[in-house]
Amino acid sequence: STRLASSRSPQGLANRDWDIYSFHVNSTVTSRYATTIITSRVANRIDQSQEIEFHVKIPKMAFISKFKMTIEGQTYDGVVKQKEEAQQQYTQAVSRGQSAGIVSSVGRTLEEFKTSVTVAALSKVTFELTYEELLKRRLGKYELLIHARPMQPVADFKIDVYINERPGINFLEIKGGLSTKELAKAITKTHASSEAWVHFYPSKEQQSQCDSCGEQGLNGDLVIVYDVHRNTSMGELKESKGYFVHHFAPSDLPRIPKNVVFIIDRSGSMHGRKMEQTREALLKILVDLAEDDHFGLITFDYSVSTWKKELLPANQQNLEAAKSFARHIHDRGATDINAAVLEGTAMLNRNPREGSASLLILLTDGDPTTGETNLEKIHKNVKEAIGKKFPLYCLGFGMDVNFEFLEKMALENSGVGRRIYEDSDAALQLQGFYEEVATPLLTDVQMVYVGGANLTQTNFSQYYNGSEIVVSGQITDNNIETFTAEVIATSVRVMYSETIPTDEPIEARPDSHIQRLWAYLTVKQLLDKEVQSSGKAKEKVKKEALDLCLKYGFVTPLTSMVVTKPQGEASQVAHKPKEGEKPSGPMPGFSGPRFSFMSGQAGYPGEQNYHHQRKHTSTHAHTIGIHMRLYFPSLELRGLAQTMENSPRPLFLLHQTLQLVLCIGAGSVLLSSAKPRFINRTARW
């Protein structure tokens, strides 16, 4: 959302002390790399100075790369610094009695950026924020999300999106709350071969007429959904100023039968709606299994139960029996993640099938509380047992889960960690994730680039239909003549090789978006690598990522942006929080505000967790030779780990939600507490 507000009383809002007279969003997407600039112009309508706040929500996978304010012809630029250095600057400001800070938060898809500045009587201010992201292909499409909530109708409101994709745009759709009702009439889209334009110019009257809009104007998302043509199985290779990007997403390959084991947490903390939604999703996922897939089901609390000891084919008889088992999964007991994952690994290892792809999917909502509870030992045990033979996907249910633990375990085993949000659509979130990995097309994918250097990730455990592999790097000595690309992978079809010419002219651009794409992707992967590393290796990876962040101006968990202001006003510091990071609120006896993160879903602002602070061109025409070789085989209670051996007894679960509100410019912090919620239930251990 974008919101500008006076720090005066709520009556000031009603009297419209300030006016957003112009609000523009301009987004350019090239080679799936999106650069979005939000420009908001605000006028102070009263004859005295006042604090004006700028509040915007951006996609959580994006990096802020620029921010500036222009006041009375003077521009104040944000400066990206190492996080510790920026924090020191902020702490010194606080010690001088200056109350200024920026609160960032992570939600499901968006995070916040907020700052403020004093604007003189009857003067104007322009805010400009730039962020960048590589759009990720999921289920056969890319999505560019733009969120707007100005808190008032704006006379000059515009969203402009330009997409340029050299292979050609296959389809283009507009979704989201800002495309509903009367607002649909304010959208124009033009789609011509490799280019597309979307314009959203709602009138002040239309801005109060969408599903979630009202007197305060727009409130919602505009989502541009598209995919590109895939004319060759080798994908698209693009070069610019000595950097290249390779988008690889073949769809004309036969699916590989899979072996999948679902490991489901049935501990006491899964009680109620979580368990119901898990059962609902599992039943639908089982129906989607192909007959040549083999599958297994494991449930766990303090003990591990298997539906069957071996993997079974997904025929009608077995599926009906499995669905009956799934309907009778009930919550009870503690959480032994270590034993459950090791059993799932052993099950896959006992059932090797040539010409198949294996994967483990773990769903849990808590930390290990029984059996092996040392997190490092669990990581070590699981990594040794899997031995890089197949990926492990870890789904963390809710905000109380130790997401960092799950994410590291997944990344160490060629998988990903994904949070499932406690909401009415949790079952759909689970199904959506399964659909992403439901159809393996290739395994053991190696991307080989002769004449390439400083490459992003080149080895991938599996490639799934509807997804995409993206590799970027530098071309050694900028010598395009000696550069070749090759894909080596395992499928179920005969070996073949192919050369893809790219001798058509490549669009000349003044900037090097491919170089920034390479930097973005490299930083993202280094941050993942840092999660998995320790000791000197961790520091080395961290420094490498930090150097790139500072060079390219990215605000990441390693860097912060110091927002400079007119003389006499305190600088502000913007941090990018990691996924699941919790608020660091004031300590008892504090004498001033501390920088704070707020995270959580709607209705759960920053739910407190008592155990963990969570850690998120001009070019020339040329021909690039590409060869493809496919090798084929011959054929809990959260925070209270209790074990009860006596008869069932009532358990009381207290959720205390703390909300930290930072009043910028007012020199005070309000710590408010939501009403505690008590749950009384009987636990069976």
UniProtKB/TrEMBL annotation:
<keyword id="KW-0646">Protease inhibitor</keyword>
<dbReference type="InterPro" id="IPR050934">
    <property type="entry name" value="ITIH"/>
</dbReference>
<keyword id="KW-0812">Transmembrane</keyword>
<keyword id="KW-0964">Secreted</keyword>
<dbReference type="InterPro" id="IPR002035">
    <property type="entry name" value="VWF_A"/>
</dbReference>
<feature type="transmembrane region" description="Helical">
    <location>
        <begin position="652"/>
        <end position="671"/>
    </location>
</feature>
<dbReference type="GO" id="GO:0004867">
    <property type="term" value="F:serine-type endopeptidase inhibitor activity"/>
</dbReference>
<keyword id="KW-1133">Transmembrane helix</keyword>
<dbReference type="Pfam" id="PF00092">
    <property type="entry name" value="VWA"/>
</dbReference>
<feature type="domain" description="VWFA">
    <location>
        <begin position="259"/>
        <end position="437"/>
    </location>
</feature>
<keyword id="KW-0732">Signal</keyword>
<dbReference type="InterPro" id="IPR013694">
    <property type="entry name" value="VIT"/>
</dbReference>
<dbReference type="Pfam" id="PF08487">
    <property type="entry name" value="VIT"/>
</dbReference>
<dbReference type="InterPro" id="IPR036465">
    <property type="entry name" value="vWFA_dom_sf"/>
</dbReference>
<keyword id="KW-0722">Serine protease inhibitor</keyword>
<comment type="similarity">
    <text>Belongs to the ITIH family.</text>
</comment>
<keyword id="KW-0472">Membrane</keyword>
<dbReference type="GO" id="GO:0005576">
    <property type="term" value="C:extracellular region"/>
</dbReference>
<feature type="domain" description="VIT">
    <location>
        <begin position="4"/>
        <end position="133"/>
    </location>
</feature>
<keyword id="KW-0325">Glycoprotein</keyword>
<protein>
    <recommendedName>
        <fullName>Inter-alpha-trypsin inhibitor heavy chain 3</fullName>
    </recommendedName>
</protein>
